[in-house]
Design goal:
It contains one helix and five strands. It has about 100 residues and is α+β, with helices and mostly antiparallel strands.
């Protein structure tokens, strides 16, 4: 497993795709559908990491991008993970809300 450098074009490409897929989730669901109990304006998103690895479950090299979700920059509500193949094609995604992370 290798961490992709933040300053690289590869990092920016995968990060941009992750935010586009995350935006799609918010377009298809309401906040209450996602178990988020605050308004959208109070949400903050931050890229935690982008990893490149060979994964046995997908039988290929993949990118894993993790975005943390915060409420007003202080309380972490959960995270979003996007999994892409090496051609930047969608493989899977996870949107996880974790309670009581204070």
């Amino acid at each position: 497993m290798a961490r992709v450098e933040r300053s690289s074009a590869l990092f920016l490409k995968v990060e941009n795709l992750a935010y586009k897929y995350l935006e799609r989730i918010f377009q298809k669901n309401t906040l209450s559908d996602l178990d988020i109990l605050c308004d959208f304006e109070s949400l903050q998103f931050q890229t935690e990491s982008i990893l490149q690895e060979v994964n046995k479950d997908y039988s290929q090299s993949i990118f894993i991008c993790k975005l943390d979700v915060f409420q007003k920059e202080t309380k972490q509500l959960g995270y979003y993970k996007l999994i892409l193949d090496m051609d930047y094609q969608f493989l899977d995604e996870f949107f996880v809300i974790v309670e009581n992370l204070e």
